[in-house]
Amino acid sequence: MYFLVFVATLFVDSIPVFAPPAWTVLVLLLLLFHLNPWIVVIIGVTGSTLGRYILSVYIPKVSSGLVNRREDKNLRYVGGKLTKAPFAAAIFVFLYTLTPLSTTALFTAAGIARVKPWHILPPFFCGRLITDGVMVYTGKYAAGNVSGLLQGQLSIKSVLTLIAGLLVIGAFLFIDWRCLLEKRRLRLNFRILR
Predict the structure, then answer these.
(1) pTM of the model
(2) CA angle 71-190-61, nearest 5°?
(3) Could you tell me which of 125, 124, 126, 133 has the C-alpha nearest to residue 106?
């Protein structure tokens, strides 16, 4: 059953759409199969990290067919800046992972910008160990039954998290990063598609 934990988290964290958070899958499998929570968290976070790596590898190939050349250059520019400051990027990713915001938006944007995955995966892993550990243990004690967990999937919090994630992706895509970082002037560009 632990292999299922690994495969399930790898799957939900390798797709660039808003899937259920990996911790909900961990709690569900923990409750269904009466698994050891410590092992579930470690294996689940490992699967999530590999899933985010897969996402960051294939999303640039998918996005290059969707965004125009100017926006692609803009995103590569910001990716280059983030790559030159790996410590700052690592701190940001670690802190971001501790928030309730979806990391799908973060890894989609980082993948499109071609940020080197090895700069952001270790802090993601560490942050997810903390947050998923807290969520799995909280979920284990809070879940009266599995059906209640599944029915509570669509809530105000999940809708607000989805909106926040879309805003992060939108901000990342529509900001002219070269203008912002070189000229210190915020300029938005909404013509990013081919």
Answers:
(1) 0.71
(2) 35
(3) 124
Whether the Cβ atoms of residue 161 and residue 19 lie closer than 8 Å to each other:
no
Identify residue 151 by its one-letter amino acid code: Q
5 three-class SS: helix
% of the chain at pLDDT higher than 70? 82
Return the bridge partners of 132, or none.
Answer: none
23-37, 63-77, 108-122, 134-148 — which is least confidently predicted?
Answer: 134-148
Interval 59-72: pLDDT, tens: 888 877 777 787 77
Residue 19: pLDDT band with limits 50, 70, 90: confident
Give the 3-state secondary structure of 105-171.
Answer: HHHHHHHHCCCCHHHHHHHHHHHHHHHHHHHHHHHHHHCCCHHHHHHCCCCHHHHHHHHHHHHHHHH
Residues 155 and 177: their CA atoms lie apart, in Å, by 34
C-alpha dist (Å) from residue 176 to 25, 52, 78: 37, 25, 9
CA–CA gap between residue 27 and residue 44 (Å, rounded): 10
pLDDT number for residue 149: 44
CA-to-CA dists, residue 89 to 52, 57, 119, angstroms: 16, 18, 7
Instruction: Give the DSSP letter of residue 193.
Output: B
